């Protein structure tokens, strides 16, 4: 990391026998330059001493100035409310990157056979400068073929004892790092995707949006090579792929040819230091990856392999000198998002020989990743073609080609290096001999954002839906950005990302993921108007509308509520404000909102997206989105002590709500309109005098649709919650858990293992956005609701709804303070609950069955009936 004052966090675990209300009252941090010194109690960098403070995640390092390219070890201990001190925690560490830009001595280098600019500009014009439909019909990969991926290497000698060796490096678009013949790490598709540099001819792309972007970034990584170096000759090498930096597709725009930068800082036991940098003294040659494109696929020709290319005794024959490349205009920053990795592997469920040398292999679920071929025994020059098929009507057509040309060495192995595919079935052509399950393995590749929460219940349909949505979301995480779909567009759509944010935070350990992506959104924001585009990093194929750009406001707010990370609000408040105020510039004379960006281009001004029945007019959806941002801003301003702005945004939200009411409410019907109009109105708030009629109208509309979902992308996020907010809990449950298309069960009935782009329409079958409404399971069925005034679940509500046909549900969520758990079971009228309130936190429990006596509580009843205050600790509660 390149943070000069990093924040350090820990979780205090409570023993089962701990008294209720136990909490931290003080802490002590120690930081040392080596692990041995720390274990010996010699904090030679910083010792905070005993600091009296209750549980407080995100404690800032406050020791002496840190140095670049160093590792620091730390530990913590705490005191409880009886002034008893804990043992020291396990040791942890962090490494610094380049803390000052002027410390970079390395230069960007590349291959001499590549041009400087991107390959999607041919004869002075972008290949996608024609109409969108025409561009889709063209074979752009043939018009702009990829050159062989370059191998770069540098030989160097070690003659003294090494204390530390840290490499700060990156390669665009993707790179793989090697040392002495071995791949250094398991990361893939590295570095994270960002808006790397200024691009040319953007006004001639599919969506010619002009942005005065706030910033651009290139992410570098740090690798500890200390224990990988050897005395004598060493070779450091990398292989470069095109990635999004040099992609060819209508959905994107290239930046330039592949390039690499690296700086190795070596410290010796005698106190001396040595710096090895990338420059024109590095060697380069073509690799066996003959073609690669993140959309178009990959061709690997094993006949071009140089097996010892990164070995100390490798020959120099066939190598050229690397050439210098122009630095990207984006700032070099340490990567703060997780890596992409192989996160899961799947064995086949069937292998069928369909004709001579042709096999079809099926896997149990659709994944985003690659196929690994093992024990290849074809003759030299045989070409094996892998065709990936996803579940949509497009079948094989959403994926690029993947070709392996055999080297003839026997027992060969291959998996794609610089792209991913989406598939549940593959066809393998020209396989010699019998293909068995031992020859194929599906590797799911995505950003390594682990599922952290656990959920299970007596309704197996819900269990299957949660698992299916998690898989869909993971398929749509690459380069620490959330995409709309992982095959066709692969776009970092802000709309899909903001809709799924709450669901992600209720399922995944996504803190660093969002920290990275929120900065992407800020960087892409127009610095003059405050407008936020439909994709971040901006890609000129990303259509959308108002419900997309609101990500700049809604995601930081959602993130704050979930984590309690106040510094994020402080850092992004100005950008949140600029985006919300930009929305206000589209206010209509009647106080609603209607945006018309890019000369009123429909694809840039969407309201609702893919509604199953009636599509509400754009103005209604724009107005709701404006209200949502003002509501978030009012609360964010209050948290930050900006009282005047808090009042101003709260008043603006009320005016927007009233304008929506006056514009759309039909007194004769007691309704705001068909399908979604009532949903938006009820979330914003309706006058008490009409609320009963509006709730009844919404209820009747859902029943009229046979308990199907009424909403598209924007409305589905709040649809089930609004039903419960109106007391229609069972209707919300029946619609979510049993409603066929349009509804979630329709996906299961179709045999899908992932969520679809549209309700019941055979388009992409790998979109996570419609799953955003399933956050109802955690917030209403489990009843866990964070209190934004005590964010990070410092205080939360537990008010579960127990569906009539269910017997139990169990949900555990890691929080900034520790694990939170709610489990309920019911048998007839008897209810049992197990609750864990994290250390230092409190919860307000609203017992789900009115009037019951609750056993297992301290004296914690409040003034409200059936309502109790719980301190930190474990509870087993029974109502009868």
Q: Biggest sheet: strands, sense, closure? A: 10 strands, mixed
Unreliable sequence segments: none
Arithmetic mean of pLDDT: 95
Overall geometry comes to: globular
Secondary-structure-based class equals: alpha+beta
Q: Tell me the span between the first and last alpha carbons.
A: 54 Å
Radius of gyration: 28 Å
Q: How many DSSP E strands?
A: 44
User: Counting H and I runs of at least 4 residues, what is the number of helices?
Assistant: 18
Helix content: 10-25%
- Bin the strand percentage: 25-35%
Helix and strand arrangement:
Layout: E1 7-8, E2 24-32, H1 35-39, E3 46-47, E4 51-52, E5 59-60, E6 71-80, E7 92-95, E8 109-110, E9 121-122, E10 125-126, H2 132-137, H3 140-143, E11 150-158, E12 162-172, E13 174-179, E14 182-183, E15 217-224, E16 232-241, E17 259-268, E18 273-277, E19 283-286, E20 289-293, E21 297-301, E22 320-321, E23 323-324, E24 331-334, E25 340-346, E26 350-355, E27 358-376, E28 383-389, E29 401-405, E30 412-414, E31 421-429, E32 440-447, E33 454-457, H4 460-475, E34 477-478, E35 481-482, H5 494-505, H6 511-524, H7 546-549, H8 551-563, H9 566-584, H10 597-600, H11 618-639, H12 643-664, H13 676-684, H14 688-704, H15 713-725, H16 729-738, H17 744-749, H18 776-781, E36 784-786, E37 795-798, E38 808-815, E39 818-827, E40 830-837, E41 842-846, E42 854-855, E43 867-870, E44 873-879
Parallel strand pairs: 15-24, 21-29, 37-41
Antiparallel strand pairs: 1-5, 2-3, 2-4, 2-6, 6-7, 8-23, 9-10, 11-16, 11-19, 12-15, 12-17, 13-14, 13-16, 17-18, 19-22, 20-21, 25-32, 26-27, 27-30, 27-31, 27-32, 28-29, 28-31, 33-38, 34-35, 36-37, 38-39, 39-40, 40-44, 41-43, 42-44
